[in-house]
Amino acid sequence: MRTKVLFVTLAFATACFGKDIKTVVLKTQPEMHCTGCEKKIKDNIRFEKGIKSITTNLDNKTITIEYDADKTNVENIIAGFKKIKYEASEATPTPAGKKDCCGGEKKHEGCGDKKE
Length: 116
Known about the structure:
Number of strands: 4
Helix content: 25-40%
Structural class: alpha+beta
Number of helices: 3
Strand order of the largest sheet: 2-3-1-4
Distance between the termini: 65 Å
Strand content: 15-25%
Order of helices and strands: HEHEEHE
């Protein structure tokens, strides 16, 4: 009986005091285009308060950050990028089934020619 009470109490405490972990996907200006950029971002942003993990994707030039929403928010994370001379903004997801301007192929940097 004692074990059950202890287990229920522990489960309740974990649920009440659990961390609010959120995820944000960011793009930067200038774009992250090489492993040097990737390393600079990972080595510096990981020290921002509340950051739990950082995953970078050089192919689509995005940074996925998991953070504790009780300790920080997206605005604070974006401000952290300014310290290392990057402008960060939330990435807008591409709707399912829709390709980018080059049909998903890496032909060049950001053309204005929209091909659908």
